[in-house]
Specification:
globular, alpha+beta, 29% helix, 3-stranded antiparallel beta sheet, 5 helices, Trna Endonuclease, Chain: A, domain 1, 6-stranded mixed beta sheet, single chain, 231 residues
Length: 231
């Protein structure tokens, strides 16, 4: 089965795209009785799960309207987005990129973000919130999974991944399984940022100053070189 065959099949099935999506159970949020029992990783994971739940529900309403869309300017080499669409119920466009194999999925992620940037430039003043990214790829490369999570957390790019699966090389059995990051993957990316080893908290006193300024706290984030004063 060739990648072009999958592209053509998805285009032919665009009016019934929701039938290709495999239904899954979105993981539950992590729950504690007391707010201070949550770790930073658990808080971020819960935020991601809520966002993925929203995108999972929206993906069934994806309407694809363009196939192999040329995205190039004069004198530039032609590049083509696999699909363009809209997610019904929200503004903006959905950029869809497909890669069949593990070997090419890194390329798909790079191309996906580049296409979104190009579209925002063509239809200025679109913002990143007006673009939804749909990545159809095996999601076997750790660097791709990590990049997807990081883009969601730090860059606020809405990227939803679908894993293509089939049986016996039969295109008629093609399904798209939504990929949801595990807590372990989120924790591995966030624990270093919020590690206690990145923070030194110490207290200094300005005896010569009257009032509350005479007893202050200074904290230092060693990793990000951030200094703050709490009085």
């Amino acid at each position: 089965m060739r990648e072009k065959d999958i592209q053509k099949y998805l285009w032919d099935k665009r009016k019934n795209f929701e039938d290709l999506i495999e239904k899954i159970d979105i993981p539950e949020k992590i729950k504690h009785e007391k707010p201070w029992e949550y770790t930073p990783s658990e808080i971020i994971y819960n935020i991601l799960i809520e966002k993925y739940r929203e995108m999972y529900e929206g993906i069934f309403n994806l309407s694809i309207f363009a196939y192999e869309v040329p995205l190039n300017k004069e004198s530039d080499a032609a590049i083509r987005a696999d699909f363009l669409g809209v997610l019904n119920g929200r503004n903006g466009l959905a950029v869809v990129e497909l890669k069949k194999s593990k070997q090419t999925e890194r390329q798909a992620f790079t191309e996906l973000l580049a296409y979104g940037s190009h579209v925002r430039g063509v239809f200025a003043p679109m913002s990143k919130m007006d673009i939804a990214y749909i990545l159809i790829a095996p999601m076997q490369e750790r660097i791709v999974r990590e990049a997807t999570i990081q883009n969601f957390i730090y860059d606020r790019n809405e990227i939803f991944a679908l894993i293509p699966i089939w049986q016996n090389d039969d295109l008629a059995t093609l399904k798209l399984k939504p990929w949801i990051p595990s807590f372990e993957e989120v924790n591995a990316l966030t624990v270093d940022c919020f590690s206690e080893s990145n923070f030194d908290i110490f207290k200094v006193t300005w005896d010569a100053l009257p009032g509350e300024w005479g007893n202050g706290q200074v904290f230092l984030d060693r990793k990000f070189k951030t200094i703050g004063v709490i009085c």
